[in-house]
Amino acid sequence: MVQGEKTRSAPGRPRSAEVSREIVLAALALLRERGPTGVTVEAVAQRSGVAKTTIYRRYRNRYELLRSSLAFVEDIPEPPVGIPVRERLLNLLEQFRRGLEDVVGLRALAAVLHGDEDPEFTRAFRETILRPRLDVMLGTLRAGEAEGELRAGVDHETVVSMLAGSYIARSVTQGTPPSDWADRVLDVVWPSIRA
Question: How far apart (Å, rounded) are the C-alpha atoms in residues 186 and 190?
Fold first, then answer.
């Protein structure tokens, strides 16, 4: 999304991609540290060193800024084709974990779980972060069934909810899951879905 080039969306000076990147990175850092309520235009300006007027030229309000920041991490690399389905799922679960812990932070997840405090952020988080990642897992399960590695007739939505939900439940009840969380949850689920 944001590389080193300059973009022009309106008459006037070109917008610096580097300034846009600094704004987004500052917003994501604040999201990790303080949760969505901590991401204000003022806080992002202070954190990034970019003037508020520059931020407002790019975003009408904090929700546009939050959505753009979440979209910055939207791309999910597909797991390599040709590797076993279990390895593909392991790869996706580890990406899911890294995205929640290192990119948006567990405070963002907590805000989503308590979605009535900031419904617009909750909707943006679900649409931009959670749903695309869960959809890739769903696609991997469907492909595994088509390839004959997974048992036919498995409820893919439930399996994805169990996999992703185990991370959320473990985080809520015991803090950050152990480093081998993805392997452990797959060890439990795999026997019931493999062909």
Answer: 5
Cα 124–chain centre separation: 11
143 lies in a domain?
yes
The residue from 71, 88, 117 where one domain ends is 71
Domain span at 18:
6-71
Q: What is the pLDDT of residues 131-146, one digit of tens each?
A: 888 999 999 999 999 9
pLDDT score for 3? 39
| Mean pLDDT score across all residues of the chain | 86
Task: Look at the chain and report how many structural domains it folds into.
Answer: 2
Hey, what are 55's tokens?
A: 């931020």
Closest CA to 68 of 36, 24, 37: 24
What is the rounded distance in angstroms from the CA atom of residue 53 to the CA atom of residue 12?
14
Task: Determine contact, residues 28/35, Cβ cutoff 8 Å.
Answer: no
- How far is the CA of 33 from the CAs of 58, 130, 139, in angstroms? 23, 19, 32
pLDDT, one tens digit per residue, over 106-130 is: 888 888 887 677 888 888 888 888 8
CA distances from 96 to 10, 75, 83, 118, 141 (A): 36, 12, 19, 22, 16
Model confidence at 6, pLDDT cuts 50, 70, 90, reads very low
